Amino acid sequence: MGDHEFDVTGTRTVYDGAIITLRVDDVAMPGGRIAEREVVEHFGAVAILARDENGRIAMVRQYRHPIGRRLLELPAGLLDQDGEAPLTAAQRELAEEADLAADTWHVLVDLALSPGFTDEALRLYLAEDLHHLDEAERVDEEADLEVEWVSLDDAVAMVLAGEIVNATSVAGILAASTAERTGSRLRGVDAPWTDEPTALRGRRRRP
């Protein structure tokens, strides 16, 4: 394991948008060179693999503009509400996107989504003991959203067939399948989240 400290000697903001900020850091490399590293700051997010008593998981099919088509995904959303805890955000997103609530929650997996250029990270929960809620009001892309129930085995097959490609959903489905097969013990909802993003939320709080 290396012991070099990658100290930041300078930083500047290049772009500050609605859901991301792009900054450029000057970082001390081994050997003394200073290199520029672009970093996309992101709010971070949560996602939910909600499984019913029959082993089916709730998925949503929604339009994703950057790739120009609808994807089948697990319910998910940004940590963009000031002071909202990740579990609270997950409970809110499950209600807003799938009209569901759950009595039992565990941490399924934590993801650093593309650490080569962004601090975006996501905590994915397993939600069980489900009950249905009244239909939520949805706007924009979510107004076109459809909820679909898929067995876990079918979801794994769809991942391997390239029919489910959203990275968060792929990771959650395969993690849930592995945990079920191996009997692995999942973490509690208070488990530390080492890579939870804080930079963009802290930036938004500053006057």
Automatic annotation (TrEMBL):
Residues 40-172 form the Nudix hydrolase domain. Gene3D superfamilies: Nucleoside Triphosphate Pyrophosphohydrolase. The keyword Transferase does not apply. Keywords: Hydrolase. CDD domains: NUDIX_ADPRase_Rv1700. Its EC number is 3.6.-.-. Residues 187-207 are annotated as: Disordered. InterPro entries: NUDIX_hydrolase-like_dom_sf, NUDIX_hydrolase_dom. The keyword Metal-binding does not apply. GO terms for molecular function: hydrolase activity. Transmembrane segments: none annotated. Pfam families: NUDIX. This is NUDIX hydrolase. It comes from Gordonia westfalica. The lineage of its organism: Bacteria, Bacillati, Actinomycetota, Actinomycetes, Mycobacteriales.
